[in-house]
Each structure stands twice: as structure tokens, then as C-alpha cells.
Amino acid sequence: MGNQKEAETFTESTDGLPPPPPYQEADYSTNVHLSSEPAPSYDVGESSSSISGVKCGFPPTLNAYLKMGFTKTFHLGQTKESPAFAARMHSGLTKNPELVLYDGPSERGSILATADHESIWRSNSVLTVPAREGVDHDSESQKVIMTSHRSLRHQTYKFTANVGVGKETRSEEFEWRSSHGSEVRELDGYRWGWKLVRLSGQTVGSGGDRATRETGSTSDGFEVVAAWAHNNSLSMTKAFKFQLMGSALTGMLGDRGATLALISAMRIWAIELATSSATAAAAS
Predict the structure, then answer these.
(1) Which segments of the chain are extended strands (E)?
(2) Which terminal residue of the chain, N or C, has fewer Cβ atoms less than 10 Å from its own Cβ?
(3) Taking a C-beta distance cutoff of 8 angstroms, is the pair 206, 221 a contact?
(4) Domain residues of the chain, as ranges?
(5) What is the distance between the terminal CA atoms of the chain, rounded to a whole angstrom?
(6) pLDDT, average across residues 241-252
(7) Distance from C-alpha of 62 to C-alpha of 44, rounded to nearest angstrom
(8) pLDDT exceeds 60 at position 33
(9) What number of CA atoms fall less than 13 Å from residue 197's CA on the CB side?
């Protein structure tokens, strides 16, 4: 469960934190309806599998629940009582990745994905999805570099990864865009957060402003495939909410697409948590 010093650091960092800074939404924001329906299976010939998610059932919506006390382990599930995944944070002073996602409600499960910093001199993150035994198109581990870009008005995180199923596996580019638009507000009334935009392939609409563009597309015509936001309630243990959408929800991006969407969202959350902790410490 980690040493006492690490545990105290994690507990202090989540206790009494100021809210994250409000995001400035750029012109490419979206207006998306977030479905609560379970993800259907998706078949692609003989090499296909039911890929609504890990173990053929990646939840379309996940809440992250912190545990009280001296621990750096937290859980993700549709409710606090039914955790689907466990996750653990490590300090940057150990050999372990800073963030580990496990398949199942405890750390005894196999590792689904990890996230870490690329180096102490660069702000890039490294996302790793291990190979899965018995799945042909997941027979090799995949390492993805997520880069951060900031301007005066907004911030983005971009990565390129192999997604899809079987013969349909292909390399695609994705970008997390900060937002306080409708797609984030529909996450139980959250006021700010992030949306994951699928930059590869054909556009899904003509774009434009919210009043005229198609549901599920950004102002520049790309598809939104996930969204997440910090907790907007008085709960001391609920950290954030995550939602699959579009191609990720239907399974077209495969298990790895859904897993990468989740681990990249968790990585951004961890970065913002550390930033808020440092800001609070400097102000005290």
C-alpha cells in the first residue's frame, strides 16, 4: 500500500483542495448528448470480438472514488458499491509508473494500462497498454506519447495510437480539449472538464456553432468520443466522472481505444491534482 510518507502526501493533496481553474473553451467546443445506454458489441469478421470494453463490458460511464485514510489506491465504477477497476498512484521518486490501472476491483488484477512522465525535463506523458494474452491484435504492448500544448485561451493533450479490432486496427490521432460546454455539463451538471476529439478519419459534420452543427461533432467537424470532469458535488471521495461517447461507446475503437481514453483522462486528472496541490501549498 506504499510507505507512510507517500500516503500522507496523497491524503493531504486531496483534502481541502481548491477547485481546478475554470477552462476557457475555444471555438472548437461541442454540444453532445451523453448516452447512458450500455455499449453494444462490434464484430469485424473472423478476428472480431465483442469490444464494448475490457472483458466485453467496458462501462460507458465511470466515477472515480478516492479512499479515506493512508492509501494511494482508488476505484472506478458506475457506483461506489460496484467498482469495476482499481487504480494506484505512485510518487515520481519510485521505479513504478505514476499511475497504474488494474483490471478488476483490486491490485491483484492484471494491469490494463499505466501512465507516467516521459522525463523530468519534458512535460510529455507516456501511456502504456500491455499485450493481452489470446487477443491477436493486442499481442504486443503499445506505448503512446501524449503531448501537452497550452495557449492563452485553452490547453490540449494530443496522442496517436493503434485502435480498432482485428483487421480494422489502425493508427489514429486524438486530442483532449478543455471545455465547459454542454457535453461536460451533462456529466451531472459539471461546469468544466475535457472532451476527447477523434482527429483521424472523415469528419462527422459540417461543424459551426452549437445551434447549427450536428450532435456529436465539434465546431471543426470532428467526432467527440469521450468526456470527463472533476467532481462538482460536496462528496469528499468522488474525484471525477468519465463518459465514453460515439465510436468509443459503440466499440469501433476497440478495447485499446476505450482503455487509452480512460488512462489518458486519468493522467490529466493526476496532473491537475498535482498542480492544485502545489498551488495550495504555495499559497499557505
Answers:
(1) 61-66, 73-77, 83-89, 99-103, 111-119, 122-129, 142-150, 155-163, 170-179, 193-198, 223-230, 238-244
(2) C
(3) yes
(4) 4-283
(5) 29
(6) 92
(7) 26
(8) no
(9) 24
